[in-house]
Amino acid sequence: MDWVLIAQPRISSGIGTVIVNSEWMGTFTHDSDMCNKLHMAGVPVWYVRTMAYIPANMKVHKPVLITHSDDIVISMYAEGNRIRPYDIIYRGQGGHQRQLHVRHLYGGTTFRNPDVTVPSSASSSSFSTPNSSALTPSSQTSAAGRAPQQSLKKHRRQPYAREARPTQPSQSGESRDKWKDPESPYLPPSLLHWDDALKTCNKDPSRVHMPYAIDWGYRFPEPALLLGPKLPERLQGYIATWLACHLLWIGRVDHDLPCNYPSPQLWRDFLGSGLTTQSQGAAPKGKDPEKKGPTAAEKCKAVMRDLFGSVEFRGEQVLVASLANPPRRLTQRITWELFELGFRYELRDLNRSLAGKHWADDLIGREQLLHSIFPGKAGLVMWSEQFPEDNYGMWNNTLIGVLPYLEKFRELICAWDGAPPLLVALLTPDSFTDTKCWEVMHTATVFYVQTFFRHFGRPPIVPHSIPL
Fold first, then answer.
1. Does 29 have pLDDT greater than 70?
2. Is the predicted pLDDT of residue 419 greater than 80, yes or no?
3. Do the Cβ atoms of 227 and 335 come closer than 8 Å?
4. What angle do CA 99, 134, 162 make, to 5 degrees?
5. pTM of the model
6. Hey, how many other C-beta atoms are within 10 angstroms of the C-beta on 74?
7. What is the DSSP letter of 21?
8. How far, in Å, are 50, 104, 322, 346, 401 from residue 342 at the CA level?
C-alpha cells in the first residue's frame, strides 16, 4: 500500500523527495533512469552495474559487491532417475552445516540437528564423519553427495608438507609428470604460452619459499586426476561424483573457504567414494568363482545408477549410464571448466597473499580488478553462465578482443614483487600490436608460473582452449 499510495504518485508526478525511507525493503534495478526515479521517491535502490557503465552524473552512496547467502539451496537433488526439489524440513537459523545436512541423497535422519555429534556406532544413515583414511561402505552413499572438505575433514596434512617434486604417483602406480598434460582425448587443447611457461619454469626445490604461507592444496580436482582411472566403471564413478557435488563445492570455495584444501590423494579418495568395496573387487573368498553372478563392472554400474541416476552440468541433465564411455565433447567441457576454475581461484589466493596491502586498502577495487580479467558477469564463478562457444577474454583471436583482459591481468600481477619491467607499462590501443601482445603474454605467463611455483611448490593449474 505504501508503494501504491506514496511511491507511485511521486514517480508519476515527478515530485519526489531525497529522504529515503529506510523501513522499506527497497529494490534492485539496472536502469539508470528508473534508479533516479525510485531514489527521488524515497525508495532504497541498488543500481546493479559495473563501475564502467555508471553515468558520470550519478552520485553513488556506497559501492558494494554482489554476493549470495551461504545458506540458500540453489540446486536440485537426484533420487534414482528422478529429480526432485528439496522438502522444507527445517525452519530456523541458517548456515553452511544445515545446507550440507539436507543435501544427502537419502532420508531418515534429516530431522536431526546437524550440530549435534552422532556417535560412531550409529547406523549407516547417520551423519558422522568417516574416521579412517578411506571411506567405509556404510558411509559411501552419504559421501557422494557432499563436498570433499566436509566428507574428508578428518584427513589433515602436516602444516609444511611439500609437494615440490615434478612427478607424482598416479592411481595406477605409474608416475605422472604434472608439468605437462597426459595424452588423453578427454582433455581440451593446451595454450601455447602456458605450455612454454610450464616447460621453462625453474623447478629447483630450493627456490620454493618455506614454510608455505598459502595453502598448497588443490582448490578443485586436477583434470588429469578426474580422468585417471583406467577402468570404465571407475571413470564413470569419478565424473559422476564430481558432477553431483561440484555446484556445492564451487560455492564453498567462492564464499566459505575451507580450513585446508584437499591434496590429490584426498581428491582421489573422494571421487572414488561412490563405489563400494564389493563393486571394485573380485568374487568374495569362499565362494565358487564359476558361480554366475554380476561382474564387478556390472555391480559398479548398478551402484552409480542407484546413487545418482542423472547429474547436471551447465543446466543439462547427464545420464550416469552414459559416463561409462563418456562423450568426448562433454568430457572436454567438464575438464576445461576444471582448468579454468583452478586457474581463477589459485590466482585469487596468490594475489591476496602477494598484494595483501592493496586488498586491505581497497577490497572492492581489487575484487573488481580480479573479476575484470575474465569475461561474463558472474565474477570467478562459471556454472551460472552458458558455456562459451569460442575462445574469449585473454585468449580471443583478435587484438581488440584480447587487449582489455590482458591489460587487467598485467595490472593485477605487476603489483607482485619481482615483476618484469615490461609488465609495468600500461597497454594502450595505439601501441598494442601483434608483437607487443606476444611479448606481454609470454612475459606474464612465465612470471605467473615461476611465482606460483615459488609459493606453492607445485605447477599451477593453467587455462586451456575452449573445446569446439
1. yes
2. yes
3. yes
4. 95
5. 0.60
6. 12
7. -
8. 25, 26, 26, 6, 23
- How many Cβ atoms from other residues are within 10 Å of residue 326's Cβ? 19
* Angle of helix 328-354 versus helix 363-371 axis, rounded to 10: 150
Give tens-digit pLDDT for 37-90.
888 888 888 888 877 777 777 777 777 776 655 555 545 555 556 655 555 555
Alpha-helical segments (H) within 93-191:
96-101, 137-143, 148-151
Give the separation between CA 81 and CA 78, rounded to whole angstroms: 7
- pLDDT value for 31: 83
**Angle between helix 434-456 and helix 192-200 axes, rounded to 10 deg:** 50
Residue 453, class by beta-carbon neighbours within 10 Å (0-12 exposed, 13-18 middle, 19+ buried)? buried
CA–CA separation, 305 vs 299, rounded Å?
10
Q: Please choose, from the candidates 285, 272, 276, the residue with its C-alpha nearest in 3D space to the C-alpha of residue 241.
A: 272
Query: Which residue has cell 604461507?
Result: 213
Q: What is the distance between the alpha carbons of residues 365 and 376, in angstroms, rounded to a whole number?
A: 18
Question: Grid coordinates in use for 320?
Answer: 550416469
CA dist., res. 86 & res. 77, Å (int): 7
What pLDDT is stored for residue 67 in this prediction? 65
Q: Is 193 within 8 Å of 445 (Cβ atoms)?
A: yes
Residues 166-209 pLDDT 10s: 334 344 444 678 899 998 888 999 998 999 999 999 999 888 98
CB 142 within 8 Å of CB 121:
no
* Alpha helical stretches, state H, 256-327: 264-271, 277-280, 296-307
Closest CA to 280 of 222, 230, 241, 242: 230
Q: What is the distance between the alpha carbons of residues 229 and 250, in angstroms, rounded to a whole number?
A: 23
Give the C-alpha separation, 368 to 378, whole Å.
11
